[in-house]
Amino acid sequence: MMKSNIYLESKPRYEILDGLRGVAALIVVAYHLCETHFGLTPAHPLNHGHLAVDFFFALSGFVMGYAYDDRWDKMSTWGFFKRRLIRLHPLVVFGTFFGMCIFYFTDCSEFPLVSQTPWYVVLGAALFCFTMIPWPAAWDIRGWGETNPFNGPVWSLQWEYLANVLYALIFRRLKRVALALCVVFFGILTIMLCLNIDVFGLLATRDYVSYTVIGGWSLEPAQLLIGFTRLAYPFFAGLLLSRMDWTIRVKRAFWWCALMVVVALCMPWMGLGAEGDSRWTNGLYEALCILVVFPLIVSIGAGSSVKGSKSSAINKFLGDISYPLYITHFPFVQMQIAWVRNHPDAAVSTHVFMGVCIYLLAIAVAYATFKLYDFPLREWLKKKLFVSGKVQK
Question: What are the Cα distances from residue 34, in Å, to 92, 184, 338?
Answer without folding.
Answer: 24, 35, 14
